[in-house]
Amino acid sequence: MFYGFDTEIAEQYGVDEAIMLQNFAFWIEKNMANDKHFHDGCYWTYNSHKAMASLFPFWTEKQIRRIIDNLIEKGLITKGNYNELKYDQTKWYALTDLGISICLNGQMEKTERADVICPNGQIEQPKRANRIAKKGEPIPDINHIHTQIQNQIVNTDIEAVPSKAEIDFSKIQEHWNNVCVQLPAVTVMSKKRMATVKARVKEHGLEAIFSAIDKTGKSDFMNGQNNKGWRASFDWIMRPENFVKVLEGNYDNATFNPLPPNLQGALQNVETQMMGGNIFE
User: Fold this and answer.
1) How far, in Å, CA of 178 to CA of 33, rounded?
2) DSSP assigned state of 223
3) 48-64: per-residue pLDDT in tens?
4) CA–CA separation, 110 and 100 (whole Å)
């Protein structure tokens, strides 16, 4: 993995800060070009400290927090929260005017508009930067090595949290209750359940959630027709190992038989006798 930074920024603000700022700037620049994650007059990138620690293995979460705090204190970035779910603590970051001037314009001096504040208290981005993204004009390079490492640079804008537009938890709850009528109903989509659903969506996609629910509703075994009378539940289905088995059809009526082969014939004989038949015919 390659990590790039501007040596001038490193000299003035520190190597750690230069590396982190480089990556923030890269993904904010991409979001500007794609007109993505624009809030309150600024373009943003986001990630959690835990995820960043896996992306930057030479830093601990505590070190990452310190580096980001230094960038905020020195006026290069600002922090916000635009998560759809209130309990989600994923951090959002935007470049300040000073950060934009240094990273996107290649100027170490402070811009004239660095004291302009957005309505929510965030430092506003220059009109020129906003105009570039809106009109599709070329974005200035972050620095001289930007083009050499842009395909290998660390991603600090991972889509870790699907938006409400992608996951409608009420529809998932409604689908379960309508399809799996013989199983315990989902009365509350708790935070834990929503987090589990998001994890499965991230792994398999949203359609897989509805597919797994449909398979559950059609499975005799998961609906209690087994030698123990066991029934599946929403939480059981959403466990990662169980979810895969359900998707792969392990519990489908056509493929699943809870009894070993040597007992299947015995069960059939019992059923025949109960119906008044002769097992020796």
Assistant:
1) 43
2) B
3) 888 888 888 999 999 99
4) 10
Q: What is the dihedral of CA 49, 55, 56, 58, to 10 degrees?
A: 110
Sign of CA dihedral 8, 131, 31, 76: positive
Q: How far apart, in whole angstroms, are the C-alpha atoms of residue 142 and residue 19?
A: 12
Q: What is the pLDDT of residue 146?
A: 41
- Segment 267-276 long-range contacts (CB within 8 Å, at least 24 positions apart): none
- 95/43 Cα distance (integer angstroms): 8
Give this prediction's pTM: 0.42
Report the sign of the C-alpha dihedral through residues 147, 148, 153, 159, in that order.
positive
Residue 223 has pLDDT above 50, yes or no: yes
Q: Which residues have C-beta within 8 Å of that of residue 253, sequence separation ≥ 6?
A: 218, 219, 220, 221
Task: Give the chain's count of helices (H) and strands (E).
Answer: 13, 5
3-state helix, strand, coil in the chain (%, to 5): 45, 5, 45
Helical ranges in 139-260 per DSSP H: 146-149, 169-179, 191-204, 206-218, 234-237, 240-247
- pLDDT above 60: residue 45: yes
Q: Which residue has the higher pLDDT, 41 or 211?
A: 211
Q: How many CB atoms lie within 10 A of CB 129?
A: 23
Look over the chain and give the mean of its residue pLDDT values, rounded to a whole number.
76
Phi, psi of 208 (to 5 degrees): -65, -30
- Which helix (H) or strand (E) segment holds residue 127: the answer is helix 127-135
Give the pLDDT score at 114: 36
φ and ψ at residue 117, rounded to 5 degrees: -110, 140
